[in-house]
């Protein structure tokens, strides 16, 4: 599903260049449930943003579902992102003036899905995350864990093949974190490829595979 070869990425300003990814090689098979672990600044989010086609890389190759992701136009990038990727963020990124069901259905609005179908699908995914009865609530009326569930439902509503989550439990307490991880597990069991960035060992342990990143490279199993 995902194949990275010798990926390099630097953040450049006029006078400085910070090399963040220094030759990433990684294969993720369809249906995997994996986490990317590493200390702060090791390049986890940078890597996830490249995987999610939210950012570009400088050199190397990224193949998503057999397709090389390089020099894409805005339109092409949006196409692959919409087609393949769901994204969940640490800070939920919900619209506070929209209800839970409106938040979940928003990606379908952008896809010009008609109102009735949008609502049906959004309700289906809200039910999947256990929030059917909270559909009419605003994010501010929900707990952090509930808000993250809404965000997960929103990421699933377009039926992506790959779900990427950047520190999805970073703003949650331990109990709620494990409930949210249980939800990712359930989503993975339904056949989705799920990749989670975390710096917490006990969160990573929930996944089937832990990928360790250190100073811009992935450690081999022998190094971990
Ligand atoms: N847009 C940017 N412009 C310049 N430097 C950046 C940018 N984004 C990240 N960096 C720098 O790149 C390095 C890696 O950042 P990244 O966010 O990928 O690390 P991380 O492993 O996800 O860290 P954390 O766990 O703290 O989120 C850091 O030194 C960071 O300051």
UniProtKB/TrEMBL annotation:
CDD domains associated with the record: ABC_MJ0796_LolCDE_FtsE
MF (Gene Ontology): ATP binding; ATP hydrolysis activity; transmembrane transporter activity
Entry GO CC: membrane protein complex
Gene3D superfamilies, sorted: P-loop containing nucleotide triphosphate hydrolases
InterPro entries (UniProt xref): AAA+_ATPase, ABC_transporter-like_ATP-bd, ABC_transporter-like_CS, MacB-like_ATP-bd, P-loop_NTPase
Stated family: Belongs to the ABC transporter superfamily. Macrolide exporter (TC 3.A.1.122) family.
Name recorded for this polypeptide: ABC transporter ATP-binding protein
Lineage: Bacteria, Pseudomonadati, Bacteroidota, Saprospiria, Saprospirales
């Amino acid at each position: 599903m995902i194949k990275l070869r010798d990926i390099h990425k630097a953040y450049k300003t006029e006078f400085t260049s910070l090399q963040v990814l220094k030759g990433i090689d990684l294969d993720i098979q369809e249906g995997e449930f994996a986490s990317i672990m590493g200390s702060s600044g090791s390049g986890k989010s940078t890597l996830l943003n490249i995987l999610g086609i939210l950012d570009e890389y400088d050199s190397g190759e990224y193949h998503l579902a057999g397709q090389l992701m390089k020099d894409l136009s805005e339109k092409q990038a949006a196409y692959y992102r919409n087609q393949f990727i769901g994204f969940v963020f640490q800070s939920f990124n919900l619209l506070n003036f929209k209800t839970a069901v409106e938040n979940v259905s928003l990606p379908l609005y952008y896809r010009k899905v008609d109102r009735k179908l949008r609502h049906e699908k959004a309700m289906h995914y809200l039910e999947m995350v256990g929030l059917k009865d909270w559909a009419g609530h605003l994010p501010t009326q929900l707990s952090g864990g509930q808000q993250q569930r809404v965000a997960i439902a929103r990421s699933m509503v377009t039926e992506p093949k790959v779900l990427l989550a950047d520190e999805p439990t970073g703003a949650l307490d331990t109990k709620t974190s494990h409930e949210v991880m249980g939800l990712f597990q359930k989503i993975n069991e339904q056949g989705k490829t799920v990749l989670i960035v975390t710096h917490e060992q006990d969160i990573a342990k929930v996944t089937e595979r832990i990928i360790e990143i250190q100073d811009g490279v992935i450690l081999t199993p022998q190094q971990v």
